Amino acid sequence: MSEDLFRTFKKRRLTEVFWQKRTIHSEDKPIYSYQQIVSDDLWLKCPACQGIIFKASFEKANQVCPLCQKHYRLTSAERIELVVDEGSFVETDADLRSKNPLEFAGYDEKQQDIRESTGLSDAIITGKGTIGGYPAFIGVMDARYLMGSMGSVVGEKLCRLFENAGREHLPVITFAVSGGARMQEGMLSLMQMARTAAAVASFKAAGGFYLSVMTDPTTGGVTASFASLGDIILAEPDTLIGFAGRRVIEGTIAEQLPDGFQKAEFLKKHGFLDQIVSRANMKRTLAGWLAFLASPKALHSGGAGTAMPPLSQNSLKASERLERIHEKNRPVIDDYLGLVFDDAMEIHGDRRYADDPAMYAGAALLDGCGVFVLGHRKGRNITENTRVHFGMPHPEGYRKANRIMKLADRLGRPLVTFVDTPGAYCGVGAEERGQGEAIAACLSDLATLETPVFVIVTGEGGSGGALAIGVGNRIAMLENALYSVISPRGFASLLWKDPAREAEAADCLKITAEDLTAFGICDDVLPEPEDPNDAEWAGRMSAVIRTYLTNMLSAYDGRSGAAACEERARKLDRIAIFRESGGQNNG
Ligand SMILES: [Zn+2]
Predict the structure, then answer these.
(1) Based on the domain organization, do 453 and 569 belong to the same domain?
(2) Are residue 149 and residue 42 in the same domain, yes or no?
(3) How many Å lie between the centroid of ligand 1 and the Cα of residue 70?
(4) 190 Cα–ligand 1 center, Å
(5) Number of domains, the chain
(6) Rounded CA separation 210/165 (Å)
(7) Ligand 1 mean position to 175 CA, how many Å?
(8) Which of 62, 320, 399, 562 could connect to 316 by a Cys-Cys bridge, CB 3.0–4.6 Å?
(9) Tens digit of pLDDT for each residue in 102-140?
(10) Is residue 416 part of a domain?
(11) What is the H or E stretch that residue 44 is in?
């Protein structure tokens, strides 16, 4: 409501005056109120925080309150000006006009009025432009046109947008702002949900990349169709996003709805948004994604790769290495990300239930080559450890990983994974939501991805929870890392009913890099600094990992995705040791 009030102010350009309400108190109760004129063209009152703000700074921030950061609505023209490179936008299908299929009284006249007052032809503008120099097809909705509702024209323009982008092999970016279906066009409006969803599906099936930005509000049929189908979905802060309206839900279930219900932050927590991006960072973020997509898929080697530093003579027992990987200062994935990659963009959510902080997912540039990254996330202190469940993912963590595997496959991007977990999270909720199924789905997809996968075991790799992101074309282990069927502690608990015998378990399980090389599971061992207290540990390890990965990306240059898939299958085929009754050993 307050926002509507604000729009009215905006529309009138604040006329000549601006009123601030003041209440005069006498004793303990207000006796009357009056309105005081505040300088008309210099100041605004933010309905969200009630703060008085300088109009120029509000407009400079592209209609974001400098006090409370409330993002007010932009018109489609303002949005295009904000994110698209100046002078690059070329509109398409500007001449489409809706008819009045139901002969709904007043529909034609209403549209005529809006067209005249806004200059819009319908609730979306589509076209092609560049963002940060990278070309994309772009669709921007406008709430001023019948609350951004989707009728035949919006549906048709979106379908053509995805077709055009598919033809030119360019990405699509849409900005949604919508109340949903356009009631005045009846069933024809509802069917635009199915049409736009189908257009996105065939665009994606042909290898296209679609980024959807939800702005306030994105609701009803637009949420339940194209806007929710982005490979990556962003939203501005505090954006209202939902299918059914809040009052409808409250009326139906007669319950108080939780704080922040249907807001962007709520949706992100529940796994449906990848990032919440402020208006000030939107263009940079979009350009980052387009740069990632435009980057090469492999590195041209042009000769031998960079030599790795030699391995030290590692005579540590597994139990001593276990101590090394439990050292407080041992680097974790958050240390590596910024040092190994040039630019890592985190991706959130499983699109099903939640975002699991125990599983990192992202897209990053490695020496200019765009790769997807997955990894178990451990914290650096007890607060972080608790937040990320000590690196033990829930099913939603594996489903997020699985989503990124499929995306890497579709876009033909290499996948890099960092393994460091005692195992998958163990609990009632994890079982209720199918922990086993979530891990199995990852293993199944790792078998069929037509893109190379490079695995680095950086700490402890325990159980199916590690394996879910641990099957690759090349599996490297840091020289003190361990990779085991279950954590040594878990092994001691299960077999000997004594978790204190952890060290003994580690020493008998054959879980070091040398053991796993002998089994044909580990391909490469990466040297670690000899001194576990080396202050530059993260930097030194990152340099080794970066060198290793760039060598791998060069080595896989020119190989087809199918060949990468076959290589993993052949590698797995060899990993079993058994004897057949004829007395032959296989390995
Ligand atoms: Zn404010």
Answers:
(1) yes
(2) no
(3) 6
(4) 36
(5) 3
(6) 10
(7) 23
(8) 320
(9) 999 999 999 999 999 999 999 999 999 999 999 999 999
(10) yes
(11) strand 43-45
